[in-house]
Specification:
Length: about 400
């Protein structure tokens, strides 16, 4: 299966006189804010330290709302069988929630290079959490689900940890995409080839890594003005019939379409489809996901809201909510309480997932889990890398 989620760094607010481009690397991992780059005009006063620490509320809002969709969609999986409407909603959410995460991750990876401080940051905020939570989820299944044969394997991501190893690979390859002339067509070609290559195997979930790659590369190509265009009123209005039409189509396709196309974890042949359908579906799914992602981004509020502060803690919400979902499954709650598949039950499941992931994104949880999500580990690095 999926997930989620690195989208958790801070973006400086643009100056009042002109648009500025965020300079930090925003991922599913939290990070301290960085001062805006650039030199001041002669005689100009230095910017106040507080101003450098301000966050862009728009991207915090994107991260929070996206992680809520991730958690709710995961909560629907055990109870949506038998409900065509819920399956249709699930398909709509799965069409764009991960592409949106990945696109934003790519956007805030534009400044990544292989300098020592950034490599250190990549290891401590992505690779180390992957190792810790891959181990934790494996042990959780072994003992909570009475599965003594469950192995701890760092090359076979379990449940939602695939996103962290994927982000690590995408980040490391960022200089390549920034160097070649036509990165997006090349990334799409790689995704198409992956979708018709059943021999890739499960190691590091490379099918997902390669099939979701175009969204990360597209994020690398975006500029701040693109998000300004997306947030225009005309785009918001156009997105309403777009989502309505998508929902109608999903309702029709729900009993006919395999969910594997949305997970992008297998080749076409592994899903019993003709090999050529993998390439066709890769392009079709990319186009549909991109359009729905634009519609989602258009409706994200640009100003601070009550949930904006939670955007800094989405890594905790992403990594922790899986224990809630899997714990309920291992305890047999979804089998025992069959009413959860009814309309009222689906609402209850959705609310519980949304409230739970919201609490997991709070600053208190972020501080308590900082040792696992962004450890300093200066002892493991040379002095040049330890300085940030």
């Amino acid at each position: 299966m999926f997930q989620a989620p690195s989208l958790f760094q801070r973006a400086p607010l643009p100056p009042a006189t002109r648009e500025s481009e965020p300079r930090h690397e925003q991922t599913l991992t939290a990070t301290a804010p960085r001062p805006a780059l650039g030199t001041s005009a002669p005689g100009a006063a230095a910017p106040a330290p507080a101003a450098a620490k301000k966050r862009d509320p728009y991207f915090d809002n994107v991260k929070y709302l996206a992680i809520v969709l991730v958690a709710v969609a995961h909560a629907w999986e055990p109870v949506m069988d038998g409900s065509r409407a819920t399956r249709a909603l699930y398909m709509i959410v799965y069409m764009f929630h991960m592409p949106a995460f990945i696109l934003i991750s790519g956007y805030f990876s534009r400044s990544f290079d292989m300098t020592a401080p950034k490599v250190k940051r990549l290891i401590t905020s992505v690779a180390v959490p992957y190792v810790l939570f891959e181990t934790a989820y494996s042990l959780f299944k072994r003992y909570a689900d009475d599965s003594p044969d469950m192995a701890i394997s760092l090359v076979d991501p379990f449940f939602l940890t695939w996103f962290l190893i994927a982000l690590f690979i995408w980040r490391v390859t960022t200089p390549i995409w920034q160097a070649i002339r036509h990165p997006l067509p090349v990334a799409l070609a790689i995704a198409m080839l992956a979708s018709v290559s059943p021999d890739i195997g499960d190691d590091l979930d490379l099918q997902r890594v390669l099939q979701f790659l175009p969204f990360f590369v597209l994020g690398l190509l975006l500029k701040p003005e693109h998000f300004q265009l997306v947030r225009r009123r005309e785009v918001r209005l156009m997105s309403l019939p777009l989502f309505a039409g998508a929902l109608l189509f999903a309702y029709w396709a729900a009993p006919r379409m395999q969910l594997g196309w949305f997970y992008r974890a297998n080749s076409a042949q592994e899903m019993g489809a003709p090999w050529w359908s993998g390439a066709v579906m890769t392009l079709a799914m990319f186009g549909c996901a991109l359009v729905l992602t634009v519609g989602f981004l258009a409706w994200v509020p640009g100003r601070a809201r009550w949930f904006t502060v939670l955007g800094a803690g989405t890594i905790c919400g992403y990594l922790l909510h899986g224990f809630l979902i899997k714990g309920a499954e291992y305890a047999g709650l979804f089998d025992r309480y069959t009413w959860l598949s009814d309309p009222v039950g689906l609402v209850v499941v959705s609310l519980v997932a949304a409230v739970a992931v919201t609490l997991m994104c709070t600053p208190l949880v972020g501080r308590a889990l900082k040792w696992a999500t962004e450890p300093e580990m200066n002892w493991a690095f040379r002095k040049a890398a330890a300085r940030r």
